[in-house]
Specification:
The chain is mostly beta strands. The chain has helices at 41-47, 111-117; strands at 7-18, 22-29, 34-40, 54-59, 65-67, 78-89, 93-100, 103-110, 124-129, 135-138.
Length: 139
């Protein structure tokens, strides 16, 4: 299956905490970082997701925010350090290609944010991703 979602990071499930309707799934990415996905309990059952399962964490580029350093006091569970490898600037929006341990992420943010944060190729950043915006696929 081909997908338009650019951000597809491979990893292994390290834990599953399932409730009546939703579950949190912790994944150790191949690069060593951890990411948390909040998915339906039905999805966990239907996909056979369990500790040790190989999965891909899928995130749309529009759901990746960027900070210039670690962020405290925020509910966003996933904070992945990286470095900007490329910036494609448009009139209103920009696409950032980030190198992270074990892969790449693409973030679509406003041109204003790029300017205000002083981002440039080579900048160290933190990719911020809400756990509810992480989908999981099994291979």
């Amino acid at each position: 299956m081909s997908l338009s979602i650019r951000n597809q990071l491979r990893g292994t499930v390290t834990s599953v905490t399932s409730g009546e309707a939703m579950a949190t799934v912790r994944v150790r990415l191949d690069g060593g970082e951890d990411i948390t996905a909040a998915v339906t309990a039905d999805s966990v059952r239907e996909l056979g997701i369990a500790e040790g399962s190989a999965v891909r964490a899928l995130v749309k580029s529009t759901e990746v925010a960027v900070a210039t350093g670690p962020v405290e006091g925020v509910s966003i569970r996933n904070q992945i350090p990286g470095k900007i490898m490329a910036i494609a600037m448009g009139v209103a929006m920009a696409s950032l290609r980030l190198e992270v341990e074990g892969g790449e992420l693409t973030a679509a943010i406003t041109k204003e944010a790029v300017d205000e944060l002083g981002l440039f190729v080579g900048s160290s950043v933190i990719a911020l991703i809400k756990s509810t915006e992480v989908a999981l696929a099994t291979d």
